[in-house]
Amino acid sequence: MTGFWRAFWALLIGVPILAFAGWGLQDNPRLFVITLLNGLTLASLYFIVASGFTLVFGLMRNVNLAHGSLYLLGGYLGFFTAQLTGSWLLALAAGFAAAALVGLAMQMSIFRFMPGQDLRQTMVTIGLSIVIADLLMWAIGAQVHQMSPPVVLDGPLRGLPLIRAYSTYRLSLLPIGIAIGVALWLFLNRTRVGMMIRAGVDDRAMLAAAGINVNLVFATTFAIGAGLAGLGGVIGAVELSMVPGEDTRLLLASLIVVIVGGMGSVVGAAMGAAILGLAETYGLAYAPTYSVVFTFVILVLVLAFRPRGILGRPA
Amino acid sequence: MSAADWRRAMNLQPPRPAAAGGPRAAPASTPRRRFTNPVRARHVIVLAILLAYPWYATPFFTFQIGAQSLALGLIALSLSFLAGSGGMISLAQMTVAGLAGYMVAIFGTAATDGVTLGWPWWLAVLLAIIGAIVAATFIGWLSVRTEGIYTIMITLAIGVAFHYLTLQNYAVFNGFQGEQKVFPPTLAGIYWRDPKPFYYLTLVCALAGYLFVVYLLRTPFGIALQGIRDNARRMRTLGFNVTAHRVAAYAVAGAIAAVGGVLFTWYNGLVTPGSVGTGWLINILVIAVLGGMRHPVGAFLGAVVFVLLQNFAIDVIDRERFNLVIGVVFLVIVLFSRDGLLGWWAALSARMSTQRGGSPWTAARRRLYAR
């Protein structure tokens, strides 16, 4: 894109947003800032879940539609671990490990045997998501589970300027999301395995020809991607509640995040998550009936002008 | 199927079929075929069974199994047409069908004090189908910018977004309650929701849809569509407008799904956000994949199996565990068959014909000529 068009788009998108921000700040600054924080923290959760989704997709072209089920699985396991041990960190680890193991099992026992058959793999993940969701409902029931936050992060954080108080746990989602994003970036860009994964994203055949055990790289990536869904499940179990149906909601969020941000790109996932989280919360705060329509309009606009997402590249 | 049709369309000499012969061992010798030509004994038998069905089946089997399978099969047919012939797997077909159902309720009569306009049923149905076609065209226009798995993701996102819209919007869609008591009209002294009339109504619509798709696949449009599925770039180079063909396919599929959606809404007597939820979006895919997408009949096969499972899973395992049963069946089909039940059928008949050296008829003919 030339500089002119870049400036044109920046103006076209930026001016209305700035105008809205100015109006919102002037009209009711407290509501505006709280909504901003809500949006950013929600975006943080979306990013954690969607980054796993996009990681798996980028390397394997596998649209894991069971990602939402893994999120729910991680959340439930984290919940029971926290009940047994009382430790939130252990719950996080358990949620990550459980989802990662299930993901690993999926990759090792099924997807390994159908390389390159994207559509068939996607069908299999659909079948798995039906089965996992029903097994979870069978084992745990349909009632709502909600985790209590860790003691350190419990209660509101008082004495903030302008908004006076805000949930400590909710606020802590922001640094957690950023930390996970940075860790993922470092892992992908600074480690040997990360290098292999990036090479695989660019050219799988060349990676295999270079003598790398591609199946091992695939399995690792799938485990990490699934584990991130489980981790998101434990984090989300406090903020949102866990109930059958949440899996679809988070799957939809992940889908929109990666469609908007561009599939296979972690930075794109961060951008997509920020856009979706902010759009959803501002929609809920300022136009409750139409918040979904709002999200949908963003999806349509991005698809109309950038069919592969903001940071997407041709496959 | 496509390759042979394609060659015929291009006036090329087809290569001799392999000696063993597949499921289509008998190639059409003349390019120009009469309408009655493809009608075989098995078609007549199946039609006779279908027509006689309500006279020997109980009302439960006529209505719950027969009519529901046909209505669901019609919706699945729209997906199997899109996916099997156009190569576009759209999860939003139930959304289009549900939208048609909603529009029948909104324009026609329903038990909602809110927004039903109470227009005559034929106008409501007509408007519902037109509206659904417009919506399907829009969905198509959005999703043809993408290919393969991207299409699945985008149509799923559209479908779920519509589900949440119906859930949150009370002014038009009546929120969680949805539209209740949406029934077919009483015409010519017959209440069309009684088992037998409703069965025949769905049968006529399903047959019309089936024959329409079979016919469409032989028209230049259908053949171009299959060409696009097989190699979009080549078709573009040949001068075909790939995007227009694909969007048109979405519109056609939308019309089929709309008819199915109206019937399914009448069958249930209601349409709620649950009818366009993720569960049903996926169910339609399950039905189409279960039956197989290589031929339009697969959608109806899949629907029959699905409905039977839905009604009798209670005997195998707990009623609540229906999703588990259908999920496992779906997984088995996807993992072990290339193309659902039709794929198994093709593999079976291919094996039979290699063992016996062709179908009974060809074997007999061969014996005759060998003498």
Biggest interface goes to: A-B, 39 and 38 residues
As a whole number of angstroms, the C-alpha radius of gyration of chain B is 22 Å
**Share of helix among residues of chain B?**
55-70%
How much β-strand is present in the residues of chain B?
Answer: under 5%
CATH architecture annotation of the largest domain in chain B: Orthogonal Bundle
Number of H/I helices of chain A = 12
Tell me the count of domains of chain B: 2
* Element order of chain B: H for helix, E for strand: HHHHHHEEHHHHHHHHH
- Beta percentage of chain A is under 5%
Q: Assembly type of the shown chains?
A: heterodimer
How would you describe this protein?
The complex is a heterodimer of chains A (315) and B (371). In chain A, 76% of the residues lie in helices and 3% in strands. Chain A has 12 helices and 2 strands. In chain A, helix 2 crosses helix 10, helix 3 packs antiparallel against helix 4 (88-109) and helix 3 packs across helix 9 (214-239). Chain B folds into 2 domains: 2-9 and 41-322, ABC transporter involved in vitamin B12 uptake, BtuC (Orthogonal Bundle), CATH 1.10.3470; 337-371, no CATH class. By secondary structure, chain B is mostly helical. The two termini of chain B are 33 Å apart. The interface between A and B is large, with 39 and 38 residues.
Secondary structure: elements and pairs:
The complex is a heterodimer of chains A (315) and B (371).
Chain A: H1 3-27, H2 29-60, H3 67-85, H4 88-109, H5 118-140, E1 156-160, E2 164-167, H6 168-190, H7 192-202, H8 204-209, H9 214-239, H10 246-261, H11 266-286, H12 291-305
Helix pairs in contact in A: 1-2, 2-6, 2-9, 2-10, 2-11, 3-4, 3-5, 3-9, 3-10, 4-9, 6-7, 7-9, 10-11, 11-12
Chain B: H1 2-9, H2 41-56, H3 59-86, H4 93-107, H5 121-143, H6 149-168, E1 186-187, E2 190-191, H7 195-216, H8 220-230, H9 232-237, H10 242-268, H11 278-291, H12 297-316, H13 322-336, H14 340-356, H15 360-370
Antiparallel strand pairs in B: 1-2
Helix pairs in contact in B: 1-8, 3-7, 3-10, 3-11, 3-12, 4-5, 4-10, 5-10, 7-10, 8-10, 11-12
